[in-house]
């Protein structure tokens, strides 16, 4: 059995750990060999391959990034995409594919399996943790850890200067990173994309916090929006993936808070530090287990599924189902955190 | 409603985070007030109290240790223990108790509720993660993180000098810390208390690892034992809690490996660094949620239960049931890790 | 002897460690007692004091921020400023002052000593390390450490996506943080305020780096400026200290690189995370030694001096001299780093 | 010009960073090429080489260990050692040698230059910081940082359980790591090899610390010895380098403290975690500068010297002089720290 492996979408700590586990168990446990495709589906389209064997994955467990590279190429949007992938797989005698990626990458894998009989197994990857089929995805814990350490450092600056500190974290459509790092970092206000925030309420919390003689930390997800939609974003330009750049909410908010409360406010945008670098111990463990179970699914010939975490178990879930619904923050969970606001 | 709070047993990162959440939600959400008992059940026996209000828990989220102190006093082993506790609760007009601790502390809480009608809610605490009623306990992720960072550092020393490095981690009866940190740290062999290890097998893994030109890391739980029971412990003395000091397995193992393989071996005993200091982001989140749900159980008048994590939910479990069975490492899970041995 | 202590200027890890050392040695070694002034010279002007004794400094060694608070109040710009300070000192029977701060705070101390006979000893504090009288100031090593860890994390993101990552670090007038963190983090280009940069050269380095199949990291100090002065800053507004906000160079640069090289570029502004939180081991050691030697200067009655690091020794330097000249990056040192550019 | 490079002696974070700087500047700045010798002088004796060029050092800046391997082989103790080295150098057309190592490695380089005309430049390496010719050596700051983080974690355990925690750190002949990490970690007692300690005094400090309601941390260098020499070491066996294993002082001390004070005491031996893993930002900077200046000395044809840090400058020092005298902790410096004891 020869298995192709690829990684798609944005950077996420743990990708290399998944591949190491896939290859170690595939080679040593089942006698498979492997071929890596460079830059996600692009490599599969163009036949751009990377050697993927035990020496290739040695030392990769703690390494961030992906040794295969990544892209957002979608074969269904390319001329003859599916046909070209079939040709690549035939040429390299690839029997099955392990696709590691988010909604887009796994959506392609689902269609390739369902509509074209390509034997795919998926491993879910989203740093935002917004996939409904799994309790957690790897990378998320690392992002929360990095954000929490930053918030820890900002507390003393806030208090020494009696300033408001606004921390903008990742999360365009789901507020998981904001919620977890805000709770873990002791934020005085957490704003998430799932619920439009009331600027007056935020300013009231800020003011009440100062009255208690402490300086507030506001954690805001990059996708959070004020009520009334009156936020003027820094610019309306599109990034290279066609998304509007939303990175301005933190700065917008700091300016509003200064105007409404008379307190000095500063913004820190954590940005890409949240998604690079070595994975946390939790993410290495989760990524390793995902890899081991993905290659087991290959051995079992169970195609069109992805691995998922449920409690402490790794289970298999149909790909089509898994990618159907975004997992957003439950209103009850957000309300639970509200006791720490203000 | 006046609620007493106490922490019992060994140090565990997250204890203060639990208390902060209990007090914040209790005071702000429900208008309760609180009294802390110093040093676990000892404070409840002797009426030794600590002020516990919102100023007392301010800044405690990231702090290791416990602001209330801890002990292993068991009121059922003290003269008139239960009676003296009842008197303390009456004197301080305490209506309910939140007991944060491990098997022993929660076992006392269970009996006080069941046999004597004391209104107790429990919060589970075991750094070893060996409680069957909950997916994880706080403190465990911190311990695994500290151990993984240490293993990361030891890899380069092992390889620069072509030595075997034996890392002894916590875990007297359950190998969870060894299993998770060994997987996350890329250990070449993980030894746990649940399965007696075969010294010849360990030496064979060590030798095969050197043949591949890499130096091995062996992670061993402090409670791991060789087959045949032929390990001569460093000393047979009892510590102050009446446990035999088992801290010698790492050193014993290094000596055996040197003798059997002819390779130099060194031991690092991580010891108390695993259980002190600031909690990881995961543990702060878990401890905070445990605290919020414990005070909700108090509000609901649901006595004799403890909070527990199931997937991403916090649930309530009868105390008596929760402490009945040790959660040890499932043989299948240990076997899964075996692909990385040697 | 009663000694007043105050901290002025921006947040800097190690301020509390200085005060702990001053108080521990002052009380235990010399039998002095202490009074803290809140918020720098403001507290001395207004007689706003804080208790400062051994219990007050307990546990403060690892804590960021300043337990006394800080401000940028300058008594020479206040009505009757010097007179009011004299009154406060007389009222609280303060014999001598230990002033911990930067150029402004120490400049006030120098004039109070020289012109008004107030017995002052200074401890230098600048996170930017731009004071010529001392090899290093505390806080600088922490800032470099935080920035280096961020750069470490950004490398993998840069390489996985073949993007340019621009990291903006602190340093308005001196490029020390950029130089040290850029060298330690393996940056492919470091831009400092001391030398206007040539955008074409930066773009040439970026392009050559991509040719070698690696994605570049550009570290830029917030005060760096392009040749020709054609940078359009994000806004020209003044912050509350009357400084123009320069925080836009990173973003400006990323946009220029995208336009000139056709490569995607992203910016991360590290901001206040560099100056908050627990001090590094080096900074705790330096701050502690500064504190011990400052109180020795008080005991010796040597006024108008500040402590300074020379090699591994702590020496005393006249305050007036110490604050005269900004220590900027030596061109030879910057050239030395140039071998790693591109 | 072809330059040979080798690393000798124990593991030390920053070795790879030195080599990266040597090679980057040598190749790009001066057009040299390089050959690496495997395992220190052993590789030079046996002609065992490693390719050393720009691709070989890519990504090595943050990596612990040494890509060349290390040993303690001494050519002056080998049959025909010097002759065999000359043959290797001739065969590989090596014009000059950069030797990175401690007293032993540099001592060999000194004799090879002085007695046999081999063109050597040295880079000092000792994690213990005990070389008198330089303010600091790389690796030392990393070791102090690791030890300080461990002490931070141990404080909470000490206080929660009111136990004495003894932390044994590296330092056989010099107490620099103990002194710096003890000061930075807020230890209540620091014991160094330079001064025999008085057990009664240590116990008095422990007791007085408990009276102030806090639990003590004792930091002890592995080479510290009690007055009277009555310490019974764990064993008198020799390790593979012929040194007596001294690693028992921590445990011995904890037992003595328990017996003399009646307080529970525990020991943590930090061991090899102090010398492995990624170098700190400071050490990466220092190692990089050492490498740049070493290759400059080669270019200048200045043989028989090593690079050294003086203040913030890198200077050249005759090898023979540099290795002559151990830099131990100055009694005045140790006394300065004494204000924090007890």
UniProtKB/TrEMBL annotation, chains A, B, C, D:
UniProt: substrate binding residues: 126-128, 163, 170-172, 222, 266, 272-275
Pathway the protein takes part in: Carbohydrate degradation; glycolysis; D-glyceraldehyde 3-phosphate and glycerone phosphate from D-glucose: step 3/4
Recorded catalytic activity of this chain's protein: beta-D-fructose 6-phosphate + diphosphate = beta-D-fructose 1,6-bisphosphate + phosphate + H(+)
Catalytic residues, chain numbering: 128 (proton acceptor)
Subunit relationships: Homodimer or homotetramer.
Family from the record: Belongs to the phosphofructokinase type A (PFKA) family. Mixed-substrate PFK group III subfamily.
Protein name in UniProt: Pyrophosphate--fructose 6-phosphate 1-phosphotransferase
Organism (species): Streptomyces boncukensis
Source species taxonomy: Bacteria, Bacillati, Actinomycetota, Actinomycetes, Kitasatosporales
């Amino acid at each position: 059995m020869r298995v192709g492996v690829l990684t798609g979408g944005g950077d996420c700590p743990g990708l290399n750990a998944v591949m190491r586990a896939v290859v170690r168990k595939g080679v040593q446990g089942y006698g498979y060999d492997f071929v890596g495709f460079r830059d996600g589906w692009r490599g599969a389209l163009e036949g751009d391959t990377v050697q993927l064997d035990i020496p290739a994955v040695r030392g990769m467990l703690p390494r961030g990034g992906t040794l295969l590279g990544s892209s957002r190429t979608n074969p269904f949007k390319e001329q003859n995409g599916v046909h070209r992938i079939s040709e690549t797989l035939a040429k390299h005698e690839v029997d099955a594919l392990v696709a590691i990626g988010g909604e887009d990458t796994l959506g392609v894998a689902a269609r390739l399996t369902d509509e074209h009989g390509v034997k795919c197994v998926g491993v879910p990857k989203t740093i935002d943790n917004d996939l409904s089929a799994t309790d957690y995805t790897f990378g998320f814990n690392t992002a929360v850890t990095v954000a929490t350490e930053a918030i820890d450092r900002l507390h003393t600056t806030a208090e020494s200067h009696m300033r408001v500190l606004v921390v903008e974290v990742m999360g365009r459509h789901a507020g998981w990173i904001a919620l977890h790092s805000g709770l873990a970092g002791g934020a005085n206000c957490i704003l998430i994309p799932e619920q439009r925030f009331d600027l007056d309420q935020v300013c009231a919390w800020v003011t009440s916090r100062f009255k208690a003689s402490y300086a507030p930390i506001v954690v805001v997800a990059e996708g959070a929006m004020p009520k009334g939609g009156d936020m003027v974003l820094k610019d309306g330009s599109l990034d290279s993936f066609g998304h509007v750049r939303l990175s301005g909410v933190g700065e917008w908010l700091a300016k509003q808070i200064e105007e409404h409360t008379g307190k000095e406010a500063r913004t820190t945008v954590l940005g890409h530090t949240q998604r690079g670098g070595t994975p946390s111990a939790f993410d290495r463990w989760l990524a390793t287990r995902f890899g081991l179970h993905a290659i087991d699914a290959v051995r079992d010939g169970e195609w069109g599924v992805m691995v998922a975490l449920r409690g402490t178990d790794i289970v298999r879930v149909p790909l089509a189902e898994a990618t159907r619904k975004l997992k957003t923050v439950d209103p009850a969970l957000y309300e639970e955190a509200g006791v720490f606001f203000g």
